[in-house]
């Protein structure tokens, strides 16, 4: 899945969620890119919890920034991403 339909805010939240997978973060740290495949069990639940705790305008940690940079570099989301819907 490409990133062209996602907002920067959505991509940042996606990076936060992807970064909950420590193996993925380690892979990006070592290889500078996202793995082709990885396990993202519970992604919808994680997204809900993260948004409730941190809001939608997140400040990225070092690991989250690493994943965010890889997403921007590669312009792909192996397991989809966060799409925010305005409720108004």
Architecture overview:
With 88 residues, this protein is an all-alpha fold. Helices cover 52% and strands 0% of the residues. It is globular, with a radius of gyration of 12 Å. 23% of the residues are buried. The mean pLDDT is 89.
Task: Put the structure in a nutshell.
By secondary structure, this protein is an all-alpha fold. Helix content is 52%, strand content 0%.
What general form does the structure show? globular
User: Helix/strand-derived class?
Assistant: mainly alpha
| Average pLDDT rating | 89
Low-confidence stretches: none
Radius of gyration over all CA atoms, rounded: 12 Å
Main β-sheet description: none
How many helices in DSSP terms? Answer: 4
Please give the alpha-carbon distance between the first and last residues.
28 Å
Percent helix? 40-55%
Instruction: Encode the helix/strand succession as letters.
Output: HHHH
SS elements, strand count: 0
Strand content: under 5%
Structural key phrases:
single chain, 88 residues, mainly alpha
Question: What's the arrangement of secondary structure elements?
Answer:
Layout: H1 8-18, H2 22-31, H3 43-54, H4 62-74
């Amino acid at each position: 899945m490409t990133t062209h339909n996602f907002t920067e805010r959505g991509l940042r939240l996606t990076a936060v969620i992807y970064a909950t997978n420590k193996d993925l973060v380690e892979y990006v740290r070592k290889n500078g890119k996202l793995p082709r495949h990885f396990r993202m069990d519970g992604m919808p639940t994680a997204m809900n919890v993260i948004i409730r705790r941190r809001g939608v305008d997140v400040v990225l940690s070092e690991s989250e920034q690493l994943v965010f940079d890889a997403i921007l570099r590669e312009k792909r989301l192996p397991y989809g991403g966060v799409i925010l819907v305005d409720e108004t």
